[in-house]
Amino acid sequence: MAAIPRQVSVMGLPFQVRLVDSDKILLETHNPEALAAISTHRGIIWIDRDSTEEVQQASLLHEVIHAINNSLNLNMTEEAICALGVLLRDFLVGNRLWLPNNPQERAGGEQE
Ligand SMILES: [Zn+2]
After folding, report:
1. What confidence score (pLDDT) does residue 98 get?
2. Which of 3, 8, 17, 36 has its CA 20 to 30 A from that of 103?
3. Could you name the CATH architecture of 7-105?
4. How buried is residue 31: exposed, middle or buried, by Cβ count under 10 Å (0-12/13-18/19+)?
5. CA 108 to ligand 1 centroid distance, Å
6. What is the pLDDT of residue 3?
7. What are the tens digits of pLDDT across the range 3-45?
8. What is the chain's mean pLDDT, rounded?
9. Would strands 44-48 and 13-20 be described as parallel, antiparallel, or unpaired?
10. Residue 66 CA, ligand 1 centroid: distance in Å
11. Where does the pLDDT of residue 85 fall: very low under 50, low under 70, confident under 90, or very high at 90 and above?
């Protein structure tokens, strides 16, 4: 199964990827249903550590698509971003383009 990377590059900008408690996601989003959050100016993506790995992968892609959407003013709806996150994950995993990392390269916990 594919691992969540500790860091990703989005349009040339580095983002730390942190697996955190849902309380941290709520703090960042003020949305009790959110499974992840992103801060483009801080370069951090937070993902709920209690989600399944499949949901964590789709959540990571979801937040990356948000960053691209905001940066390029694509005016994508939340529904479109949700669908693309799930479908891109299916594409990457189904075609073995998202392969397991070294376990030590996996995202760590919150370091704050
Ligand atoms: Zn979203």
Report:
1. 82
2. 36
3. Orthogonal Bundle (1.10)
4. exposed
5. 22
6. 80
7. 899 999 999 999 999 999 999 999 999 999 999 999 999 999 9
8. 89
9. parallel
10. 7
11. very high
Which residue type occupies 74? L
Between the CA of 103 and the centroid of ligand 1 the distance, in Å, is: 28
Q: Which amino acid is at 94?
A: G
Structure tokens at 54: 């499949």
CA 55 to centroid of ligand 1, rounded, Å: 13
Pairing, β 36-39 against β 13-20: unpaired
- 65 burial level (CB within 10 Å; 0-12, 13-18, 19+): buried
Domain boundaries, given as residue ranges, for the chain:
7-105
Q: How far is the CA of 80 from the centre of ligand 1 (A)?
A: 9
- CA 75 – CA 25 distance, rounded (Å): 23
